[in-house]
DNA sequence: GTAGGCCTTGACGTCGGCGTCAAGGCCAGA
DNA sequence: TCTGGCCTTGACGCCGACGTCAAGGCCTAC
């Protein structure tokens, strides 16, 4: 099987496959014309890579799984190194979900306050009264400060909830 | 106040300020030497930008808030455009948190399976028996497929849970 | 013969938000 | 006067995972 066919079968591009090869993840044999040649085992390796990427794993993090498969194991996660990556990911996911949940709450609160303030202004326009209450973004933001937790390097390509500034 | 002082006061860098200016977010007056000059109002604008960035807003998304403040409103979110950004963000956050939660569950399940399989292998080593059960990553991954939902362009700098491939 | 389709390597482009030089100007204090 | 510190603009670097274009080779069908 040549590169185009493999890419089609797994639903990716030839460019991606060459990229993986350049990273040493998915080496290929060559035929007489210098064309890359792949077998069924490579389909499995590639599927493993793609599945993990869909979960948001970085390419480097898929390496243990790929090597595990290549060393003859029936599954990519049948090796300690792979399991370790799973564990790390879980931790990152939990941290990230926690941060996002905190941010969500904060933004939700700001939205509610802003809407209330605007409603108040509208009401004032109807029946003029006193001035409006402040509605600056709370300093809780600094406390909640959704900061790059524990080297959360793209948990799912979705990290980077802002790094420490200063 | 000059650029260095402003940066210090808000806890950012002169580079960032010049960048914001290049984006038209934080224009500055100049003194006789061509040096940038800022006032207290600029401190508030910059704080608004930084607070939102901490929440994971993209720079462009802070623009309505900044313009709102500059147009004389007491708060950056006292304008409809700002409120609209809040709403959009909430939706993106909810979607992202949902995706991450699904991924977390999936990865957690895989981890459990992998650990159980390895424990089984260890047990077999002790008391040899039958072969091991499969433990490939489930196809649920394709269903759950954490894919770029609704143009989730960096909800918090944390988007990109993988775009559609193909 | 030639058009089409697959393959090859090489290399620059993308996106965001700056970091990090480089080369130089202006001003204050010792 | 010289050193140090602040400022200026310009421009390349970074990161990840490729997209995309360029220039060319091989093979096949018509």
Detailed description of the structure:
The structure is a homodimer of 166-residue chains. The first copy, chain A, is mainly α. Chain A folds into two domains: 3-55, Orthogonal Bundle (Multidrug-efflux Transporter Regulator, Chain: A, Domain 2), CATH 1.10.1660; 87-151. In chain A, 58% of the residues lie in helices and 2% in strands. Chain A has six helices and two strands, in the order ααββαααα. Chain A has helices spanning 3-10, 14-22, 40-54, 59-70, 80-126, 140-144; strands at 29-30, 36-37. In chain A, strands 1-2 form a two-stranded antiparallel ribbon. In chain A, strand 1 and strand 2 form a beta hairpin. In chain A, helix 3 packs antiparallel against helix 4. The radius of gyration of chain A is 25 Å and the shape is elongated. The termini of chain A are far apart. The relative contact order of chain A is 0.09. Mean pLDDT of chain A is 82; it is low at 129-159. At the A-B interface, helix 3 and helix 5 of A face helix 3 and helix 5 of B. Chain A binds a DNA duplex (30 and 30 nucleotides) through helix 2.
Characteristic key phrases:
166 residues; mainly alpha; Multidrug-efflux Transporter Regulator, Chain: A, Domain 2; 6 helices; homodimer; 2 strands; DNA-binding
What global shape of chain A is seen? Answer: elongated
User: Could you tell me the mean pLDDT of chain A?
Assistant: 82
Fraction of helical residues of chain A: 55-70%
**Main interface by residue count:** A-B, 63 and 62 residues
């Amino acid at each position: 099987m040549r590169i185009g066919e493999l890419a089609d079968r797994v639903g990716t591009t030839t460019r991606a496959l060459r990229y993986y090869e350049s990273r040493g993840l998915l080496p290929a044999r060559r035929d007489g014309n210098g064309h890359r040649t792949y077998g069924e085992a490579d389909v499995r390796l590639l599927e493993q890579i793609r599945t993990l990427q869909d979960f948001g794993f970085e390419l480097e993090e898929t390496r243990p799984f790929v090597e595990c498969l290549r060393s003859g194991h029936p599954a990519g996660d049948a090796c300690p190194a792979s399991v370790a990556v799973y564990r790390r990911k879980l931790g990152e996911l939990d941290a990230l979900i926690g941060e996002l949940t905190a941010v969500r709450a904060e933004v939700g609160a700001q939205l509610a306050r802003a809407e209330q303030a605007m409603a108040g202004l509208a009401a004032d326009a109807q029946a003029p009264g006193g001035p409006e209450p402040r509605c600056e973004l709370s300093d809780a933001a600094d406390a909640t400060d959704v900061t790059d937790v524990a080297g959360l390097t793209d948990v799912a390509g979705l990290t980077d909830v802002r790094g420490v500034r200063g």
